[in-house]
Amino acid sequence: MFLTNGALFANLLPRYPGLKAELALSNVKFGLVVAAYPSGALLAGLAAAALIRRFWSSRLAVAGTAITSVALFAASFAPNGLLLAAAFALGGAADALTDVAQNSHGLRVQRRFGRSIINGFHAIWSIGAVLGGLMGAAAVALQVPLPLHLGISGLLFSLVAMLAYRWMIPGPEHDDVEVTTAGIRVVKAGTASRGGSAKYFVLLALVLLTVAGSVVEDSGSTWAALYLSGSLEAPQALAAFGFIALVGAQFVGRMLGDRLVDRFGERRVAQAGGLIAALGMGTALLFPSVGGTIAGFAAAGLGIATLVPAALHTADELPGFKPGTAITLVSWLMRLGFLAAPPLVGLLADETSLRVGLVVVPIAGIVAFLCAGVLAGRTRRHDST
Length: 385
Fold this sequence. Notes:
Layout: H1 2-10, H2 16-22, H3 27-45, H4 48-55, H5 57-75, H6 81-113, H7 118-141, H8 146-164, E1 184-188, H9 198-231, H10 236-239, H11 241-264, H12 266-286, H13 290-303, H14 307-316, H15 325-351, H16 354-357, H17 360-371, E2 379-383
Helix pairs in contact: 1-5, 1-7, 1-8, 3-6, 3-15, 4-5, 5-6, 5-8, 6-15, 7-11, 9-11, 9-13, 9-14, 9-15, 9-17, 11-12, 11-13, 12-13, 12-17, 14-15
């Protein structure tokens, strides 16, 4: 599920420069069109918890994947920015439901394991994003028509999602925050005792943490190819590697993430990641070059690798909320970053330059460093008997 979710939208990203040019959109207008995707996600996202309780996370994830595929296929026929935005809004709504459902299901699996594995699931998402980005770059290089490209990718990954359903945990979600596995109980330092009004402060910090991650991710997905091909005059096929570098490094960070979290705790790993993102992309913007910018996006992807998994894990274990409610709220409000970043960067780009607009990336890294304090320290395991 994580692989298909990462691959679907990533197929479209290398086609952004061509779409923008074909529809004659300014940076601001293009940013507003892209923002329709998280707008749809915000409208639909709050329904995820109720839908999960009603239809199960496994079923919702598969259905959301299929609807996202249809929406992106429809986007390939859009004759103007307005209809493209409408297709994006539908895709974003379905993607939000898929995102919450797959994370909720992944955390069910993690609780059965009794140790951190959620970063591994998000690493699979990054593999999907790299795969989708490479498919999109190949389609650009081979001049494959957009409807044919997105039709094939949508059908392929919808079938993969349906096949994956056979191996997902059956049955409804349960309030099983603490699950014993082989006599081991997992307790996260700094999270178990939070309740009352403090939980809302933690929830706000978790939202800011995920927004920081989403701003970095969106800057790579929306603007990397445009910055490299426009401001730095790289060929379009090469420009696609800005986003591919980001999600590729993100994959590496997530593959290492569970081991690092078990050793150092979510807090320290996230704080270090925020600094890596800020310093890496900040340096790339100070000294612009094609190679340096691709490396800067890679540093940003590595830095934010564990932010969203850690925030969703912490939200899922917050006391005082019904099952699925806190994780739905954080996942829903995370879309604010995807909503605000495209038009903000586009406005800055039109008024100054895209290089200035991308300063939001190192700023987001600093925000992540500051908000990571609400995450858990090192994991303490002890016998449950």
